[in-house]
Design goal:
Layout (H helix, E strand, L loop, with lengths): L7 E11 L10 H21 L4 H5 L4 E10 L4 E8 L4 H12 L15 E14 L1
Antiparallel strand pairs: 1-4, 2-3, 2-4
Length: about 130
């Protein structure tokens, strides 16, 4: 791909793949609403921190990856792992570094009555030519 002769726009799409697990005893409609709302807030934080790495644009690297993130009740990341890799080790590492730099997510809402919360995010990196 000759980037000097083309105008390239980038697109990062972020999807919620999994809304985590709600304990059976706490699975009310109101709890489900709190759960979905909280998950969307967490994914919005991830989305705000992820951009298309410049090296990936320069080399025409695209890909999809899915990451599982687990936080504690205070919103601190306690674990991250790949569910699906993009096919580019450089892109995977760059995204994981960005996620690792997120200082803290929001506290788990008291209404959820959870000590830990995990969710999965699908990230799609696409190059769009003008």
């Amino acid at each position: 791909m000759n980037i000097f002769n083309k105008s390239i726009n980038t697109l990062v799409i972020c999807f919620i793949l999994s809304l985590g697990i709600i304990p059976i005893e706490a699975a009310t409609n109101e709890t489900n609403l709190h759960h979905r709302t909280f998950t969307k807030e967490l994914v919005d934080i991830v989305k705000s921190q992820i951009n298309y790495p410049s090296f990936a644009v320069d080399y025409g690297i695209e890909g999809e990856l899915t990451i599982q993130i687990k936080i504690d009740e205070k919103g601190n990341i306690i674990a991250t792992k790949f569910i699906q890799r993009s096919g580019s080790g450089q892109l995977d590492r760059a995204v994981m570094r960005k996620i690792g730099r997120i200082q803290s997510f929001k506290r788990i809402p008291h209404e959820l009555k959870l000590k830990e919360f995990d969710f999965e995010v699908l990230l799609i990196f696409l190059l769009l030519e003008d």
